Amino acid sequence: MKPILLQAHERSLTKIRYNREGDLLFSSGKDKIPSVWYSINGERLGSYNGHNGTVWTLDVNWDSTSLVTASADSTVRLWDVQTGRERNVYQLDTPCRVCAFSYDGNRILYTNDDVMGKPCEMYLTDIRASPNEGPSARINISQKGLRKATSGLWGTLDEFIVTGHDNGELVQWDIKAMDEVRKEKPHSAQIMDLQANKDLTFLISSSKDCTAKLFDIETLEHVKTYTTERPVNSAAISPLKDHVILGGGQEAIEVTQTSVQTGKFEARFFHLIFEEEFARVKGHFGPINTIAIHPDGKSYASGGEDGLVRIHYFDNDYLDYDIAY
Predict the structure, then answer these.
(1) 66 neighbors 127 (Cβ within 8 angstroms)
(2) Taking Cα atoms as reference points, which of 12, 97, 4, 76 lies closest to residue 294?
(3) Domain segments of the chain as ranges
(4) 156, 157, 87, 88: which is closest to 123 by C-alpha?
(5) 189 band by pLDDT with thresholds 50, 70 and 90
(6) WD repeat ranges (predicted)?
(7) Around Cβ 91, how many Cβ atoms within 10 Å?
(8) What is the DSSP letter of 114?
(9) How far apart are the first and last CA of the chain?
(10) What is the mean pLDDT of residues 179-196?
């Protein structure tokens, strides 16, 4: 597999995401300028200029018309994907950590950090409304005795939201009641990323406790565990095969004394059902911060602390490889 290298970010990557068709790849980093690329050849199409701090995460709606970004400059911004024009700015008091589009693309959820004496709160906003109207709903996460949210996603039919927290808790929220329904603590350290599978039946969490775990998205029942020797920053479920891809490695702050071999900066492939690792892909010379699999399952992209996005198209060896069971 010869990767396509995308080099536009001056600092480390924080999030990469494909659109629904998989022809576009969106990336954000600590250099405040999210970018969009053609995933087929790595051509850069443009950037979304306006943030004044690290862009922690981004999401694109189902028809690739709107992009939402959450930044450390205490704003969540809504963009027109095609023109790069800024549509709306949602101003908060503290840095924004999470943002995600609902399945229908009409609502966004976003959260802020609990710093400077401010609580961590989760907001739901209808993007069709004027930004002056404020959020349609908000939940004070800190008031419920929970730590700050570090990741989040919408559940089946937009009926609930699942958030991951920096103490390893996983919480399911009912949208109508605006209250927590289920709470689990599957991890002993911060949850770095949550990703659902293609049909929104399972989600995979990745954590600094060196594991990624698979859950039923409706019940939060723990199903599988994928164990490594280094923190896992991101994990994705393949839509084509029973595989998951994990990315991580020794934390960037400790990397000065680390060689590429001992840092474990590879993307690691595990069998979804058997929890067995069967392959690794080298390339990054720092920890992998974010991983996304193409919606057709025939390629994947990884973004690292080294500021590079690498797109790998799978060889026929991988596509033909199968474990009979």
Answers:
(1) yes
(2) 4
(3) 3-320
(4) 88
(5) very high
(6) 6-37, 48-89, 184-225, 281-311
(7) 11
(8) -
(9) 27
(10) 97
Give the residue, 325 or 245, on which the prediction is more confident: 245
Q: CATH second-level architecture of 3-320?
A: 7 Propeller (2.130)
> Could you tell me which of 282, 216, 273 has the C-alpha nearest to residue 241?
273
Residue 262 pLDDT class (50, 70, 90 cuts): low
| DSSP string covering 226-260 | EE-SS-EEEEEE-SSSSEEEEEE-S-GGGGGG--H
Tell me phi and psi for residue 158, to 5 degrees: 60, 30
Dist CA 225 CA 241 (whole Å): 17
Rounded to an integer, what distance in angstroms lies between the CA atom of residue 66 and that of residue 48? 12
What is the percent of the chain where pLDDT is above 90? Answer: 86
Whole-model pTM? 0.95
pLDDT digits (tens, 9 = 90+) for 43-59: 999 999 999 999 999 99
Number of H helices, E strands in the chain: 2, 28
Angle at 14 (CA atoms; ends 36, 210), nearest 5 degrees: 140
3-state secondary structure of 316: helix
Give me the amino acid identity at 276.
Answer: E
- The amino acid at residue 254 is E
User: Is it the case that residue 92 has pLDDT exceeding 90?
Assistant: yes
How far lies 303's CA from each of 45, 48, 50, 91, 184, in Å? 18, 18, 22, 28, 29
